[in-house]
TrEMBL record:
Residues 268-482 form the Pyruvate flavodoxin/ferredoxin oxidoreductase pyrimidine binding domain. Keywords: Oxidoreductase. GO terms for biological process: response to oxidative stress. Transmembrane segments: none annotated. This is 2-oxoacid:acceptor oxidoreductase subunit alpha. PANTHER family: 2-OXOGLUTARATE OXIDOREDUCTASE SUBUNIT KORA, PYRUVATE-FLAVODOXIN OXIDOREDUCTASE-RELATED. The keyword Secreted does not apply. One of its GO terms (molecular function) is magnesium ion binding. InterPro entries: 2-oxoacid/accept_OxRdtase_asu, PFOR_II, Pyruvate:ferred/Flavod_OxRd, Pyrv/ketoisovalerate_OxRed_cat, Pyrv_Fd/Flavodoxin_OxRdtase_N, Pyrv_flavodox_OxRed_cen, THDP-binding, Transketo_C/PFOR_II. The lineage of its organism: Bacteria, Bacillati, Actinomycetota, Actinomycetes, Kitasatosporales. Residues 28-215 form the Pyruvate/ketoisovalerate oxidoreductase catalytic domain.
Length: 628
């Protein structure tokens, strides 16, 4: 072949600053694995990224149906990004159900890679297609790449001793190879992963590798893909350091282990499996080498009961759950408030009420965390804002728990738990010192000069009571849920004592030292403040950036501490004429802010099981900015 003809056939490489890709198929098609592997290679390449896994609640929904569609969206860029993207630039649809369930989110001009083998009459009829959308012109606004993924995969694996059904299972690896070629992703990590994952089944490992390489080669040689794309590493987006891709639940688990080491307390997790919190139990069970003990209880109540017992015994105690589990744990949380023992209650929020939407996100447990117990039972609340921030939030929850001897709520949600982003691995000396002292001997002198131990004699600064380990001679004391006498810890029904204890427990929570709220107001003359909490941080920040780029002036602040609020929150709110609070609930933070600060906050709410889109929020905020 001449040089001229080589130039003619060389494929075009276009440079992009960002891309949003969505893989979609049956829950058995391996879309989560495919997306995870593409994400890992993208992270190793150095792009900033954000992901949104989305899967059905059913363990195995009927194949080819809309309820059974599983998807994984990845947004990666050469600059700092904050969300998994509003709409995919590329949709990989493994069957008609995947196409129909996702096409409404795909903008005109986007690319569709469609597995044509699955577009049979029966498969299309299941989702209401009378005529193939690949042939009726309904996809004319998109760049459609019809690819017989199943056939090509089976053909690539014909030399392996596999049945057709077994070979078809590797079509997700063929798709991954194709997309890896299309966006110049590294391949070494995926190759190592497949060899390790199927180490005990080398023929399956070899087949998946062959499918992956066949997908790459198909992109390289076929006429159907004339263009590939490059997205440069986001070198300027990250401070110097060592990075890895991390999900919220994994970051939270690592944060708990780090808190255990920095407090020099053994970590105990008492838990009952529940979506989307179970991954924390799975991960912590792998770290016995760090002194972590995990206990999978028979139910939610047993899980927190064991954790509270471990706290009494001197452990850094944790229980993990979601909204329905918090309801079951509420009485024991109240017991922990009464006993004044450190306990971290991790609530990975999901759509409710009741069983609700187990695999969809929501942040509607705030009022339950604040008030969902009998009596006056105040509990501090901490909320991470990004997947990587779950690490720091876990350390902060541990700091408050051990310093103030109190149960602490850590409110994450399904979006953060399953989503992922790059995380800079901190140096050990960057982590807070969480060491605490146990009571060693008497702490009170009676009128007759006798030295005794009073289990409810408080630190004058923190109002925390001493933490006495069972078995320490002379420090025996009564525990239980009946009201205690101030100081002595004896059972007391005295009205004045009960009033004192209730007010003291509240004062202890109110007095927790938390950082002041930081406000992002570049010009200092904005009259509108957007206030958020939890996982709304990414969409809110992206929306605010859009408005500022368009010339609007707007301020933003984000709460990590929801109880107690930062001391300067009231002063911050008074500086602005308008306060907008977007939440994935019906206005729970807005209710608290209005009640405490008498601010006429504008609440914007969404409860559809999905995170906010930046464009959607930008439109809402623009209307508020320009409203008279």
């Amino acid at each position: 072949m001449s040089v001229e003809s080589k130039e003619i056939h060389r494929k075009d490489v276009r440079r992009l600053d960002r891309v949003v890709i969505r893989f979609a198929g049956d829950s058995g098609d391996g879309m989560q694995l495919t997306g995870d592997r593409f994400t890992s290679e993208t992270a190793s390449f150095g792009n900033d990224l954000s992901t949104l896994p989305n899967f059905p609640a059913e363990i195995r929904a009927p194949a080819g149906t809309l309820p059974g569609v599983s998807s994984f969206q990845l947004h990666f860029a050469d600059h700092d990004i904050l969300t998994p993207g509003d709409a995919p630039n590329v949709l990989v649809a493994m069957n008609p159900a995947a196409l129909k369930a996702n096409i409404a989110d795909v903008p005109r001009g986007a690319e569709l890679i469609v597995n044509t083998d699955e577009f049979t009459k029966r498969a299309m009829a299941k989702v209401g297609y009378d005529v193939s959308p690949l042939e009726d012109g309904s996809l004319g606004a998109y760049h459609v790449h019809p690819v017989p993924l199943t056939t090509l995969t089976v053909e690539a694996l014909k030399e392996f001793d596999l049945s057709r059904k077994e070979a078809e299972r590797s079509k997700n690896m063929f798709a991954l190879g194709l997309l890896s070629w299309m966006y110049h992703r590294p391949t070494e990590g995926t190759e190592k992963f497949l060899k390790a994952k199927f180490a005990k089944k080398p023929h399956i490992a070899a087949a998946n590798l062959a499918a992956f390489k066949a997908g790459w080669n198909f992109g390289e040689t076929t006429e159907g893909f004339a263009v590939s794309y490059e997205v440069a590493p986001a070198a300027k987006a990250f401070p110097q350091g060592t990075y890895r891709n991390i999900s919220g639940n994994l970051a939270l688990a690592y944060g708990l282990v780090a808190a255990s080491r920095r407090s020099e307390l053994p970590l105990f997790l008492g838990s009952y499996p529940i979506t989307p919190a179970s991954d924390i139990l799975h991960e912590l069970s792998r770290h016995k080498n760090f002194g972590v003990r995990t206990f999978q209880a028979e139910d939610e109540i047993a899980g927190i009961g064991a954790a509270l017992g471990a706290a009494f015994g001197g452990s850094l105690a944790v229980t993990t759950t979601s909204g329905p589990g918090v309801a079951l744990k509420s009485e024991t949380i109240g017991l922990a408030v009464s006993l004044e023992l450190p306990l971290i209650v991790v609530d990975i929020q999901r759509g409710g009420p009741s069983t609700g939407l187990p695999t969809k996100t929501e942040q509607a447990d705030l009022l339950q965390a604040m008030y969902g117990r009998n009596g006056e039972a105040p509990v501090p609340i901490v909320a991470p804002r990004t997947p990587a921030d779950c690490f720091d939030a876990a350390l902060e929850a541990a700091r408050i728990a051990v310093t103030y001897r109190t149960p602490v709520f850590l409110l994450s949600d399904g979006y953060l738990a399953n989503g992922s982003e790059p995380w800079r691995i901190p140096e050990v000396d960057e982590l807070p010192d969480l060491r605490t002292r146990f009571a060693q001997g008497p702490n009170h002198t009676l009128d007759d000069g006798t030295e005794v131990f009073w289990p409810y004699k408080r630190d004058p600064q923190t109002l925390a009571r001493p933490w006495a380990i069972p078995g320490t001679p002379g420090l025996e004391h009564r525990i239980g849920g009946i009201e205690k006498q101030d100081g002595t810890g004896n059972i007391s029904y005295d009205p004045a004592n009960h009033d004192l204890m209730v007010r003291t427990r509240q004062a202890k929570i109110d007095g927790i030292q938390v950082p002041d709220l930081q406000v992002d107001d570049p010009t200092g003359d904005a009259d509108t403040l957007v206030l958020g909490w939890g996982s709304t941080y990414g969409p809110i920040t992206a929306a605010v950036r859009r408005l500022r780029t368009a010339g609007d002036t707007i301020a933003q602040a984000h709460l990590r501490h929801l109880n107690p609020f930062p001391a300067n929150l009231g002063e911050v709110l008074k500086r602005y004429d308008k306060v907008v609070i977007p939440e994935m609930n019906l206005g729970q933070l807005a209710t608290l802010v209005r009640a405490k600060y008498l601010v006429d906050a504008h609440s914007y709410n969404q409860v559809n099981g999905m995170p906010f889109k930046a464009e959607q929020l930008a439109h809402v905020l623009e209307e508020v900015l320009h409203a008279r």
